[in-house]
Amino acid sequence: GAVVSQHPSRVICKSGTSVKIECRSLDFQATTMFWYRQFPKQSLMLMATSNEGSKATYEQGVEKDKFLINHASLTLSTLTVTSAHPEDSSFYICSARMPSGDRETQYFGPGTRLLVL
Amino acid sequence: AQSVTQPDIHITVSEGASLELRCNYSYGATPYLFWYVQSPGQGLQLLLKYFSGDTLVQGIKGFEAEFKRSQSSFNLRKPSVHWSDAAEYFCARKKSSGDKLTFGTGTRLAVRP
Known about the structure:
The complex is a heterodimer of chains A (117) and B (113). Helix content of chain A is 0%, strand content 52%.
């Protein structure tokens, strides 16, 4: 149980275009999902917390108009990188937590590698 | 101040040898503690977690970790390392229920044949 998927696994795009990344909880409903960014050989940095049916909560320094998050259903959250630039190239990982029981543990997706040319 | 510290950036051990990866946290109260493993280009897999109770916790793949309040540590151990254990290991903690998950900088483990 507690499987989280991401799509696509990797994407290459031109500078100025927008890219959408999907995060799905496959075998449970996730009222809360999280988006992280990981630079090469570094740790994960929380970007935002995505709540089903409400606006996402962004961490300090993360541009909400740049990184649009939509959590339209209990199993899907999307991250859209708008007008992507080379500095947005990174590894983006989502996670989800159970809606009840152990609500402290996060289960992570396999990540999406974004390369902006 | 770094809230989760993993002092060792790289560790190399021989296959079959024992392993200990260090993790220290700075928050005083009993936090929620986790160890995750990340293979190259992959997401994170939960190895084990500690919330309360028995301070020695068992995880998957033969890993265990011990919570030591007096040392603010939560070190990960494995008695005999396998070549497939080569990966990046992250310690993480929450200060309290509902707090965000904060990660250490990670320890990269290499395994010699």
